[in-house]
Design a protein that fits this description.
Blueprint lengths: L2 E2 L6 E10 L6 E10 L15 H9 L19 H12 L20 H9 L6 E3 L2 E3 L8 H9 L2 H4 L22 H9 L19 H13 L13 E4 L3 E2 L1
Parallel strand pairs: 3-6
Antiparallel strand pairs: 1-7, 2-3, 4-5
Helix pairs in contact: 1-7, 2-3, 2-4, 2-7, 4-6
Length: about 240
């Protein structure tokens, strides 16, 4: 089936289709959140860029923004507060506790509402330094820290922990003990993949392009039914038709 979406403007839309078989009163409803994007949003992320579709998709739904007008800067690094904001907007986990107080988070920064939401949902707990709970919002986030935040979301924390050790992580010994279970779980369910040399590289800082890819994979995973959470399944439409 082809659906002509040419009359629709660029941006997010919800498409609902009702189908039925001949000589039957039963109907099936298919609902999809789609993103219509006929033009590239950022001059430094052409369609040939490996993360182009992920960046365009999340940008279209208001999850990520450019660093400057028309520029995404995909190779720039992501801070802890930037990644947490994107994750909170994408995963929409429920509050489980009162938000924690971090002594290094001012009361009125742009990220305070997202830090509070992430804390109350159990996505972060910070670190203690000289008896004070710290979040280090401006510190560059590492691959391990990002995976740990993702693994604590409602949708991933509900998945059973694998019983066996996951093969193929050559640098397992470099992963901090507190993060081993998070990495193994996301590898087991194929939410993340290592590098070509079978390493995970837990301490490598995350780039903006990598963050977009992580979060897009997070919203697309087929382990979860369509329309669960904030985004459900997302589709990018560049040619005016959905197949």
């Amino acid at each position: 089936m082809f659906l002509n979406v040419e009359p629709l403007k660029d941006g997010p839309h919800n498409i609902t289709i009702f189908t039925s078989r001949p000589n039957s009163d039963n109907q099936r409803m298919i609902s999809r959140d789609i993103l219509i994007n006929r033009n590239d949003s950022f001059s430094d992320v052409p369609q040939s860029h490996w993360a182009h579709d992920d960046i365009e998709r999340l940008h279209g739904f208001g999850i990520i923004e450019g660093r400057t007008v028309g520029s995404f800067q995909p190779d720039q690094l992501v801070t802890r507060q930037e990644f947490l904001k994107m994750l909170v907007m994408t995963a929409k986990s429920e509050a489980k506790q009162q938000s924690l107080i971090f002594t290094d988070v001012p009361t009125e920064p742009w990220s305070k509402p997202y830090i509070d939401r992430g804390s109350s949902a159990g996505l972060i707990d910070g670190e203690f330094s000289s008896g004070r709970r710290m979040f280090y919002p401006n510190r560059t986030i590492t691959r391990l820290e990002a995976i740990a935040m993702m693994a604590r979301t409602d949708r991933l924390s509900s998945l059973p922990q694998p019983h066996e050790s996951i093969p193929g992580i050559e640098d397992r010994s470099t992963i901090q003990p507190w993060g081993i279970s998070f990495v193994e779980k996301l590898f087991y369910y194929r939410w993340i993949h290592g590098y070509d040399d079978h390493t995970f590289r837990p301490d490598v800082p995350l780039t903006r392009a990598e963050a977009a890819t992580l979060l897009t994979s997070f919203t697309h995973d087929s382990n979860f039914p369509q329309n669960e959470g904030l985004l459900g399944y997302l589709n990018s439409v560049h040619n005016g038709y959905i197949k």
